[in-house]
Amino acid sequence: MKTTLHLKLNGRDAALEVAPHARLLDVLRDVAGLTGAKEGCGEGECGACTVLVDGRAVNSCLFPALEAEGRSVVTIEGLAGAQGGLSSLQQAFVQEGGAQCGFCTPGMVMSAAALLSANRDPSDDEIRDALVGNLCRCTGYAQIVASIRAAAGKAGAP
Amino acid sequence: MSNPHFVGVETARPDAADKVSGRTQYIHDLAVPGMLWGAIRFSDHAHARIKHVDTSAAEKLPGVEAVITGYNTPEVRIGFVRDNFALKRDKVRQFRDEIAAVAARDPETARAAAALVRVEYEPLPGVFSLQEALAPGAVLVHETDAKGRPRKDNLVPVRFAHHSGDLEAGKRASKHIVEGEYRVPLIQQSCMGTAGCIASFDTRGNLTLIAKTQIPFLAQKDFNRALGALGLEGRNTRVVVPALGGGFGTGLDTHAYEYIAMLLAWRTGRPVKILYNREEEFAYLSPRQSATARIRQGCDANGKLTFREIEVTQDNGAYTSWGATFPSVMLVPATSLYRVQNISFESKIVYTNNTYCQAMRGYGNPEITWPIESSMDELAELAGLDPVEMRLLNSNQPGETTPMGLKITTCGLQECLERTAAGLNWKENRGKRRNVKRGFGLAGLINVAGGGKIYRSDGSGIILKPDDYGNVNVSYGGVEMGQGLHSVLALTIADTLGVRPEQVIVNQTDTSTCPWDVGTHASRGAFMACNAAVMAARKLKARLLEWAEEIFPVEVEEALAKARKHPGFKEPDFDWRGNCRPGCFELSDGILTIKGAPAVPELQVDFARLLRAIHFRRQGGGTTFAEEAFYEPPTELPDWEKGIGNMSATYAFGAQGVEVEVDEDTGEVKILRLVAAHDVGRVLNPQTLKGQIYGGLAQGIGYALYEEVLTDKGRILNPGFTDYKLPTAVEMGFPIDVQLVQTNDPEGPFGAKGVGEPGLVPTAPAIANAVYDAVGVRIRELPITPEKVLKALQEKRRR
Ligand code: FES
Ligand code: FES
Q: Which of A20, B125, B351, B395 lies 20 to 30 Å from B752 when distance is taken between CA atoms?
């Protein structure tokens, strides 16, 4: 019943046993033990499950795990800098108060990471457009946008 | 308080690093060894008799460990009027009624088995609107009350009212009177982290509940009572609170799913987890009430308010949660927003076969500020006054006692109104843009900001326990749900005790280790916690400084002796021995020293070293420390039927103003900018404070423009974010100017007031007032959708 999924997970080769119809989100959380990506809706509406597949932000709750075969997947756990330190994007979220309850935060950070790797210096409107698939009930987005603005253009971002 | 240097300074939150790296553990991320998964079978009817429940097919599914119903488990009642049951027997009263539940090895099996439970019903007619439920001879949602006595109508048996002054005299004294009926919709709290819990028993029958709650200690009380129903009288519930993916009022009650997890864990002898997915959260978790309010108020020829009359009718749904008591909070603005004598407030809370409702941030205040502040604008127009002038004329002032008996100590309402108006260039702008369809509107607010007494105690305890390494471990019984409570606690303790914020570690909330707290609601968290923390930190500091007289000379001598071995060491030019007297020591930033001493390391004793020297005292008799303090605010439990009582130790005021553009072709309302001026007492951490205001505003905007749970005969039609629209970063893309008005409240910790709820209170009426300014139509029903605006515009043209 299970198939082996080969992928690069947070920079390392991984082989995971997955059910054929498994969602990437479940495989990350339940098989790989990476619980940073969250399920906020399970239907592609909230972005809490956002991860990068080959550098693009995807909703892992809609993404069939087997489609990650041979590709590179980066989760919030893979974003951390060396020795578990925070990336400059994560640091900006800390400094600017971009996280409140934090449930949306891993997804927000991953969407922001995808944006910043495509666009080093986005305008506020571009930041907001990039976050349109990420819902947050706590922050009103102001400090999230400020976090991304602060990280933009910084050396080493995201 | 002497010169705080952490309080008031923009500081990153202690929990932020874990949150941005995905390490924070929510109920979704937790598992306990041996754990089973629970799933619930909900009703297929809004109102029906249960004829038969057949669980045989569910029991046969491989992986199923137990199937329970109301027929094979003891009756567990829920809610403060005890009208709800963990599992329903005989009758269902709403679509989400719990009929059976399954424990199985994984969530898929549990859900599949729940679907296999066969239920036979005899459908009954239902009541789905206030009119239907209140009609003479209406079908009764509950035929009997909790004691089994027959009921005659669909009214929830609690009353909140206020009558003061002379209403008729007030009307006679009025030059202008306005009247209107206003509606608010059913909305979902929409925590990004859905609801869930893990229940487990030890062999003696003690329950541990990992719960997404805001009331750990009231939950302990509820569950201990439920243990009694299982024949486990005298056994205890330990409530442990994981990181919360938002609260917003959803944690103010204990829920059927939690009792069901308890029953399944008891039945199977294994831990049981229940976790709602988003669709379940929408369909089976209580939303915020819909309500209708009729308001009438008047003013004299000068614009002074003469009377206010309000009747609220609230759709409770089928059962009663604390949220039913929204009118208790409505009393505050109804009687005390602006100076008005001659008041009548009446409320009805009505059972229907709709989903039952619960608390949400603001708790009745946005519901009632909506009609009051819309009607203030109408009254100003009749009186020929500018809306800001009208409000300033009637503004509350420091030192007054309102008709409800609220003692207004500090009051920044006037300044908030003025700063909001100034931020919008009100004088030049308002009322003058009709040709470009832009308009300006504003609304004020009052909110409890020093607790909100609705229970015998409104207090909070705290324990500070320093360790050998200079960490100060904090046990607090309230709940961090994202608002930044732990951040302001750390700053408060650091400043009061004299350590660095990083040395303060706030422990997980757990009823077995934390002192009692009534719950984190009513904007009370930071106010209570920090007041208790100041008390405890002062006690701890006093004890440490007493010990300093003995410890400091010993430690300093030792340090000097060591230093003297280095050639070139110069003795400090300070008579430190002569200054080792009570009152001369200073603990600051985690360093003990003597006031006025030069900052050389030999004359400083690190906090950790001080603690160790006391603990491991050479001559014996050493000690460790823990200090507890309990803060009970100086407030009164109101007499609810009279609507009198000073329920909070202080009150927050504020004003919000917006500029909107209304598209007359589509009816769409676009916010161009927003000014929010809030009387916050004193800023504890500007970052978390602004976070509360921005976040509140977004919920206020959602309430005003977008959100509504749609139902058809009790069935929820839009159980997901596809059809239930929350504001996104794009909708929130307008400039927001937050103005913090600091009134330095004498009862507040460092002068601070509670700030959790005010951000969403006046947003909707400010927007409706701006829409009126832009296009001359008054919308009285939230949300202000393009359809409603278009319809109103068409009606206006016809007139
Ligand atoms: S969980 Fe994937 S978008 Fe919401
Ligand atoms: S921080 Fe709570 S949902 Fe975004």
A: B395
* Whether A58 and A106 share a structural domain: no
Ligand 1-lining residues (CB < 6 angstroms): A 39-42, 44-49, 59, 61
Cβ–Cβ gap B721/A109 under 8 Å: no
CB contact under 8 A, A135 and B19: no
Q: Which of A59, A63, A110, A137 best tests ligand 1's pocket when mutated (most atoms within 8 Å of CB)?
A: A59
pLDDT value, residue A155 = 46
Is the per-residue pLDDT at B680 higher than 70?
yes
Our count of domains for chain A comes to 2
* CATH number for position A23: 3.10.20.30
Residue A80, pLDDT above cutoff 80: no
At position B190, the amino acid (one-letter code) is S
Segments forming the whole domain that contains residue B702: 290-454+637-798
Same domain, B479 and B450: no
Instruction: Find all residues with CB under 8 Å of B445, minimum gap 6, and list them.
Output: B333, B337, B365, B369, B652, B653, B654, B655, B656, B758, B761, B762
Dist CA B25 CA B508 (whole Å): 11
Query: Position B263: which residue type?
Result: L
Residues with CB under 6 A from ligand 2: A 99-105, 136-139; B 192, 246, 482
Cβ-defined contact of B277 to A39 (cutoff 8 Å): yes
Q: How far is CA A158 from CA A56, B602, B657, in A?
A: 14, 44, 36
Per-residue pLDDT at B436: 77
Across the range B658-669, mean pLDDT stands at 97
Q: What average pLDDT score do residues B530-543 get?
A: 98
* Segment B510-529, tens digit of pLDDT: 999 999 999 999 999 999 99
Residues of A in contact with B733 (CB under 8 A): 124-125, 128
B140 part of a folded domain = no
pLDDT digit string, tens, across residues B103-156: 999 999 999 999 999 999 999 999 999 999 999 999 999 999 999 999 999 999
Calculate what percentage of chain B has a pLDDT beyond 90.
Answer: 98
CATH code (residue B481): 3.30.365.10
Q: Are residues B594 and B676 in the same domain?
A: no
> B246, A134: Cβ pair inside 8 Å?
no
Of B275, B302, B330, the domain-final residue: B275
Chain B: closest CA distance from residue A69 (Å): 24
A27 is in which domain, residue-wise? Answer: 3-76
Assign B1 a pLDDT band (cuts: 50, 70, 90): very low
**Residue whose CA is at the smallest distance from ligand 1 atom 3:** A44
Q: Which tens digit of pLDDT belongs to each residue from B235-244?
A: 999 999 999 9
- The answer to whether the peptide bond before residue B157 is cis (omega within 30 degrees of 0) is no
Are A20 and A49 members of one domain? yes
Q: Do B481 and A101 touch (CB under 8 A)?
A: yes
Could you write out the three-class secondary structure of B683-713?
CCCHHHHHHHHHHHHHHHHHHHHHCCCCEEC
The whole-angstrom distance between residue B546's C-alpha and the CA centroid of its chain comes to 40
Complex ipTM: 0.97
Q: How far apart are the first and last CA of chain A?
A: 39
Q: Coil, strand, or helix at residue B92?
A: strand
Asked if A61 and A95 sit in the same domain, the reply is no
Same domain, yes or no: B619 and B728: no
pTM: 0.97
In the predicted structure, residue B253 carries a pLDDT above the cut 80: yes
Contacts of B24 in chain A (CB under 8 A): 102
Domain count along chain B: 3
Q: Are A128 and A83 in contact (CB under 8 A)?
A: no
Whether A60 and A106 share a structural domain: no
Q: In chain A, which residue's Cα lies nearest the Cα of B16?
A: A94
Structural domain includes residue B174: no
Indicate if A53 and A108 belong to the same structural domain: no
Distance from Cα B134 to the centre of ligand 1, integer Å:
41
Percent of chain B topping pLDDT 70: 99
DSSP state, B21?
A: T
Question: Which amino acid is located at B546 in the chain?
Answer: E
Residue at a domain's end among B241, B275, B309 = B275
Q: A40, B16: Cβ pair inside 8 Å?
A: no
Nearest residue to B397 via CA among B386, B376, B412: B412
Using a CB-CB cut-off of 8 Å, the residues of chain B touching A40 are 192-194, 245, 278
